[in-house]
Amino acid sequence: MVTKILLPQGGQDLKEATVARWLKAEGDQVKEGDLICEIETEKAVFEVEAECDGTLLKIIVEGGQTAPTLSVIGYIGETGEKIELTADDNSQPETESTAQSSDSKTDSPPTLEKLVQEAPMISSSSDKLKISGRARRKATQKGFDPSLIPGSGPGGRIIEKDVLSYSGTTDQAITPMQSPSSISYPDAAGKRAPLTKMRQVIARRLQQSKQQLPHFYVTVSVEMDEALKVRSDFNRALNRDDNRKLSVNDLIIKATAHALEEFYEVNCHFRGDHLLYLDDINIGVAVSLPSGLVVPVLEHADQLPLGDIVEETKRLISLAKAGKQASVAPGSFTISNMGMLEVESFTAIINPPECGILAVSGIQKKVVVSDPGDLCIRQLMKMTLSADHRAVDGVLAANFTNKIKYQLQNPRTLLK
Amino acid sequence: MAKKIIIIGGGPGGYVAAIRAAQLGADVTVIEKKDLGGTCLNRGCVPTKTMLHSARCYRSVLNSREFGVYNTLQSFRFDKMIKRKDEIVQTNVNGIKYLFQKNKIKSIQGTASLIDPSTVSVRCRDDKTERLKADAILLATGSEPLTPKFLKFDGDRVITTTEALQLDQVPKSIAIVGGSVSGCEFASLFSQLGAEVHIIEMLDRIVPTEDAEIASKLTNALEKSGINILTNSPVEAVERVYPSGDVKIAVKGHSSLQLGYCLLTLGRKLNTENIGLEHIGIKHTSAGIEVDDQMRTNIKTVYAVGDVTGKLLLAHVASEQGIIAVEHIMGKKVSMDYQSVPAFIYTHPEISSVGKQEVELKAEGTKYLTGKNYFKSNAMAMGMGMGEADGFVKVLADAKSHQILGIHLIGPHATDLLAEAVMIIKNRMTVEQVKDVIHPHPTLSEVIKEAVLATVGEAIHG
């Protein structure tokens, strides 16, 4: 019996994903549980396991290609078995096999140029966008946001011709990454490191965000003395070997969740032609790995009591560190905390289609002027909100950030 | 076999009914979702009065020089006041538990809903569900503070009386939205403890349920103590301001206020939901469960008492209704009388009343006599200090029969003094009958007698 290999659903809002690379070749024997390929989504790279023993009969979606989630990307069966393609399988985007195969003939390691070309640009509105695979690659190559290109194909589908004509008539184009061939780098000694798939995703997404989203920043200083007291009281109440210790980050997650509840306009996705105020408050927590950055998502953070936030965050972070994708929900906001690195202040890049990210710095003792005008020593922490100014106005950003500050300075509000 | 009674709600309606029913030999089970004692004991009258007493002590210390007492320490600790209040509440709750044990009353912590006219389903704290059968079911589910959506209650700085009793410090400034009984009590409390207090009332006066003259006297007293009272002033919007956490309140006809807290005292929402009323067809509206004078609903085996009946939202009314209900269940001939229900406000000065008001008598067309006597002419009141002796007693009597129809007090210990007035109204006493009663001297109670005498122009110290 032939078993289909389906492109997994990487997240609720994801309609497509990219096969990063195949770990097995056609004709290879696979055992149930073997890793057969890597899938790259907007959020992460994760692995697909074989669901049964057999032979990898055919690869339908090659490495680097994008396909709708839950579509067939390959088949496993007995050697020599015949595969009957179903209508289902044909619903994949054009694969343009000639171009692909000519590429794959070159056995040399992938060049940056090729990787960039292969890495499809998934715009925030891509879930609705009708575009051919060839057109998408062309648009990526030229640095266009595909959602801006008028389509002339059936049902308004964007075809290659549209991309070519678009390039001639507009100056709206943004170049996300200059083609390496157009830049001449001076000779320099050093070790050449090809970009890993993860690094490519990071590079593409961050560059896209920083270039396309009008970031603006709001920084506040928070007196953390009370919050630190709450934390140590909380932890003192635990058994010595209980590892559910409350961290400052947990308090910040809780405060942020409350703030997103009150200022729901920040809990929003900017989706090209509309804003989507999200029902759920799902907070992404940036986690650093040796290979790069991942952002596991804490779902329904507003509904979790502090103790549950502690446990759930711990679980997500350890899964992320083990290289597993633990959450599938789309994030609505992200927190990036460099507090443990004794950073005085930094700003973060928004993770689109989200509209904000909070950069949390370290706590440092500072002399401050108190209310009655005395000098005193307080534990200060700087936080900077990066907001997408298309969706979030200045006053809103200030109120939102100050609400987080208020709660951290009045931490009893977090214990409820 | 003993009659089985299930009581849903362990507040002053439910727990008093339970004890009375047990005294009459019933097998009683009380189901309470939070704490025995209900709102009154845990989140209402008792803790409020305890806090007000702490405030009164502080006031006495501040004013002690008038009495020749000199002290150097003029401070208070709010956290200690709150702690003392919690201890007193706990002692009272334990008292009810003891009374339940003594009377062999079973109590279950959980939420209950009606399955049929003789069955209740109880969801306990551990999420287990059990079904109980009884010969009669008494609903005493009470009420909760009303928090209209546009006023953005958040339990942090936009609060109800429940949170106001758990604050960790006295607010620097507070707006009290709603100038009725509990609004004025909390205004009085926080003002005595040094807060900047604003009462915002939609109607043309505060304490609209009280006699107009008393209300105006209270307005003066509260304003004199520094409270800002806005009447005819509906609140249009409430929003939080960060990072201060302050509350910005837009009031129609005034510039907006920015204060530390906003306390909502706008009345109460009756707990008629999720108890299965619709399920078994018990007649009710948002104004309460319909009951007759024996506290029976339209379904014979189901009774209702207290706030949930929407009659008079007072603990002592609930208790009385509870006693009437279980006595009726146990076969006694009883009937609820709302004519002589006492009402109190524990402001400084205190207010209390029983019987009719002037507006009611005018509306009825009853000809009546008015007698008034001031505390400042009473030796005992004078001894208590001039700040305390402000106030008066007002008596309304039928012009023909001289039957006393209403007694209204504002002044020192007005709440404690009312018991005599209730006796007078309940027993339909006349001016002449009260005239005949010797009142001890020197006591504050003399003011009541003088006010009664004043209706016929015979007050001695008038």
Explain how this protein is built.
The complex is a heterodimer of chains A (about 425) and B (about 450). With about 425 residues, chain A is of the alpha+beta class. Chain A contains eleven helices and 18 strands. In chain A, the strands form five sheets. Chain A has a six-stranded mixed β-sheet with strand order 9-18-17-16-12-15, with helices on one face. Chain A has a four-stranded antiparallel β-sheet with strand order 1-8-6-3, with no helix packed on it. In chain A, α8 (about 250-260) packs across α10 (about 395-410). Residues about 85-125 and about 170-175 of chain A have low confidence and may be disordered. Chain B has about 450 residues and is of the alpha/beta class. Chain B has three domains: about 5-145 and about 270-330, FAD/NAD(P)-binding domain (3-Layer(bba) Sandwich), CATH 3.50.50; about 150-265, FAD/NAD(P)-binding domain (3-Layer(bba) Sandwich), CATH 3.50.50; about 350-455, Enolase-like, domain 1 (2-Layer Sandwich), CATH 3.30.390. Chain B is about 30% helix and about 25% strand. Chain B has 14 helices and 24 strands. Chain B is globular and about 65 Å long. Chains A and B meet through α10 of A and loops of B.
Structural domain tally of chain A: 3
Radius of gyration of chain A: 24 Å
> Could you name the CATH class of the largest domain in chain A?
Alpha Beta
Tally of strands of chain B:
24
Structural class of chain B: alpha/beta
| CATH level 3 topology of the largest domain in chain B | FAD/NAD(P)-binding domain
| Low-confidence parts of chain B | none
**β-sheet strand percentage of chain A:** 15-25%
Q: Kindly report the greatest chain-chain contact and the residue count on each side.
A: A-B, 12 and 9 residues
CATH class of the largest domain in chain B: Alpha Beta
Distance N terminus to C terminus of chain A?
56 Å
What is the terminal separation of chain B in angstroms?
62 Å
Lateral strand order in the biggest sheet of chain B: 5-4-3-2-1-6-19
Low-confidence stretches of chain A: 87-127, 168-176
Overall shape of chain B: globular
Please give the largest β-sheet of chain B.
7 strands, mixed
Task: Assign the structural class of chain A, choosing from mainly alpha, mainly beta, alpha/beta, alpha+beta, or little secondary structure.
Answer: alpha+beta
| CATH architecture call of the largest domain in chain A | 2-Layer Sandwich
